[in-house]
Design goal:
Layout lengths: L2 H7 L8 E4 L4 E4 L24 E2 L54 E6 L4 E6 L8 H7 L1 E3 L15 E8 L19 E9 L6 E6 L4 E4 L2 E4 L5 E4 L2 E5 L11 H12 L5 E5 L1 H10 L3 E5 L3 E3 L4 E3 L2 E5 L1 H9 L9 H19 L2 H4 L2 H14 L1 E3 L5 H11 L7 E5 L2 E3 L6 E3 L1 H12 L9 H10 L11 E6 L6 H11 L5 E7 L8 E4 L4 H11 L6 E3 L14 E5 L22 E3 L8
Parallel strand pairs: 6-19, 7-14, 9-20, 23-24, 23-27, 25-26
Antiparallel strand pairs: 1-2, 3-18, 4-5, 7-8, 8-9, 10-13, 11-12, 14-19, 15-18, 16-17, 20-28, 21-22, 25-27
């Protein structure tokens, strides 16, 4: 019986099973008060072992050798019982599950841990006993300045956006064999993780490394602590947003914002070793292949079917591209997303969450592998962040990729103009790709039900309340010349700046408001009935007030994010098993 199972069965608080050994000064696990027990030792820092594969039917085990145990002296006090619990003999050392009290899932916080190189992420459940270990874990974490590129920190009352970067830097034992030992470490794999405001869903959007983007000017903190602004470069590969010309992860953060219009809260970075150590710590990750893969470049050699992989083999899987799909980076992204989905399922399983030894090994490996921005370098902040992300159910975590088209050079790709912007807008507007908000959407749609006026009957005054200069005039031209709203006027700048575009109108103008909402793609939340005031148009007739906010993207561009069903992008949820082909 494991620590938590024994604790629950004896009605002992699991936190009380961890006691201080005066001989070593370390906390160790003691299961009964009557006899010395073997300690569950703290996971050691070590180079990750190479792990082979095994049949998926074989129960997963850690790919590292079991550490030696040591005896706790009799002078160490036994665990305390909860007040009011009668004294009982310790349970005999049974094996198997018959008669065993089923352990409850840990109610402890969840620490979000990301691995990189090719990148993997997992949600680690930390038991109550794990909190004794926090200070040590805190010392493991490396921090990198965010240089003001983020929001300053995530908040529990709004959506969360994380940039997760897997670098191709070859540092670490055994990684020189992958070639390019002098690599500065580019953004080899990047995912923008968006967690919805209500924590019902999350979108993990992969950004192809060979996609052409504009890298903006980047104020950075260099390794020696000096400040330097690295000039931006238009029309370059996305992966050069890190490493090239001394760029730091904060520059990748700024490039993501430049591309998507989404300001990230935080970034996390990891290298090749993260994949190897973390996949080993959880006992391997199950993957599925539709065909045999023997890739001479990545060194992956697997037969068709299911396998549990860890260590070097996990890294080889995530680096494979030439033997799957079309042999491109986009094919490799599909492999990565399959691996990540499987890892999430493994991490959220009771097999992991109720195994304190596995949890501690994983927490040790994870924090040692991470580099995070300077706003979340405390383990408690990471735990709080992880708790928020951990609220999302596996079936509502959706993986997708920025839609792209081939560039003329045959080696790079470009964002597909309309499709990419629709995906970015969906994330900006906090719309779920897993369609978990159908009820809310139906309620929203109900607000727009009713009759519509003809376009020629719509009367509206247009103001610029935060959009780019010239937006009000451009909108007026579009309304009058393209969609037939001829009774419109442009009246310059609004009295105040708005983050969102609004349409204010009187109750008797509701049919006009609904028509204009249809034409412009305004959501129901943008409509402000009863706030029309006493404005008139150029003809002296009552007019609605349209104020263009910071979210305005241009005349004729819809302000409503499309629903997940409308998006023409590849997407898969983390609960679905998919085999690589």
């Amino acid at each position: 019986m494991d620590a938590q199972g024994r604790g629950r069965a004896d009605d002992i608080d699991p936190a009380d099973q961890w006691v201080l050994n005066p001989s070593t000064g370390e906390y160790e696990l003691r299961l009964t008060p009557s006899a010395p027990q073997s300690a569950v030792p703290r996971p050691r820092r070590a180079a990750p072992a190479t792990a082979g594969t095994r049949s998926a039917a074989t129960p997963a085990r850690s790919a590292t050798a079991a550490p030696k145990t040591r005896e706790i002296p009799d002078t160490v006090p036994g665990p305390r019982r909860r007040r009011g619990t009668p004294e009982e003999d310790p349970l005999p050392g049974r094996r198997g599950s018959r008669g065993r009290t089923r352990p409850k899932k840990s109610t402890g916080k969840r620490i979000l841990v990301w691995t990189g190189g090719s990148l993997a992420f997992l949600l680690v459940g930390v038991s109550a006993a794990g909190y004794l270990y926090l200070q040590h874990l805190n010392n493991n974490i490396d921090k990198i300045a965010d240089d003001g590129a983020g929001t300053g920190g995530f908040s529990k009352d709004r959506a969360i956006n994380l940039v997760v970067i897997g670098t191709d830097k070859r540092t670490g034992e055994g990684n020189e064999k992958y070639g390019d030992p002098g690599s500065v470490g580019h953004a080899d794999t990047t995912i923008l993780l968006h967690v919805s405001k209500d924590r019902t869903n999350a979108t993990a959007m992969s950004i192809p490394r060979d996609m052409i983007v504009d890298v903006p000017d980047c104020p950075t903190t260099q390794e020696d602590g000096s400040q330097k602004t690295i000039p931006g470069t238009p029309g370059v590969r996305f992966n050069t947003s890190l490493g090239q010309d001394g760029r730091t992860p904060s520059c990748t953060m700024r490039t993501v914002e430049e591309l998507t219009g989404i300001k990230p809260d935080h970034f996390m970075v990891a290298d090749f070793n993260a994949v190897k150590t973390l996949s080993t710590a959880i006992g391997g990750v199950e993957v599925c292949l539709e065909k045999d893969i023997r890739d001479t470049k990545s060194k992956l050699d697997l037969t068709a079917g299911k396998h549990v992989i860890a260590g070097e083999q996990a890294l080889a899987f995530l680096r494979t591209r030439y033997s799957v799909g079309l042999g491109s980076d986009l094919s490799r992204i599909a492999l990565q997303q399959q691996f990540l989905s499987s890892m999430i399922r493994q991490m959220k399983s009771e097999d992991t969450l109720t195994d304190p030894t596995k949890v501690l090994s994983l927490a040790e490996a994870a924090t040692d592998a991470l580099s995070v921005d300077s706003q979340i370098t405390d383990i408690k902040k990471l735990a709080s962040l992880g708790q928020e992300v951990g609220k999302v159910k596996t079936k509502n975590i959706t993986f997708t990729t920025v839609p792209v088209v081939d560039n003329t050079d045959g080696a790079t790709v470009l964002p597909t103009p309309q499709k990419a912007e629709e995906l970015f807008a969906t994330i900006r507007e906090d719309v779920s790709l897993s369609e978990v908000k159908k009820q809310a959407k139906q309620k929203e749609a109900a607000k727009l039900k009713g009759t519509r006026a003809e376009a020629s009957e719509v009367r509206v005054n247009v103001y610029n309340g935060g959009a780019k200069a010239g937006s009000a005039q451009a909108t007026l031209n579009w309304l009058q010349n393209d969609v037939g709203v001829t009774r419109s006027s442009q009246l310059g700048n609004a009295d105040k700046t708005l983050s969102k575009t609004t349409l204010a109108y009187d109750p008797d103008q509701a049919d006009q408001a609904r028509k204009l909402a249809d034409l412009m793609g305004l959501s129901a939340s943008a409509l402000k009935p009863g706030e029309g005031g006493s404005e008139t148009n150029a003809q002296g007739l009552p007019a609605m007030v349209l104020t263009l906010g910071k979210d305005f993207q241009g005349a004729g561009v819809s302000l409503s994010a499309p629903s997940a069903a409308d998006l023409d992008v590849e997407k898969n949820t983390a609960d679905k098993e998919k085999c690589a082909s």
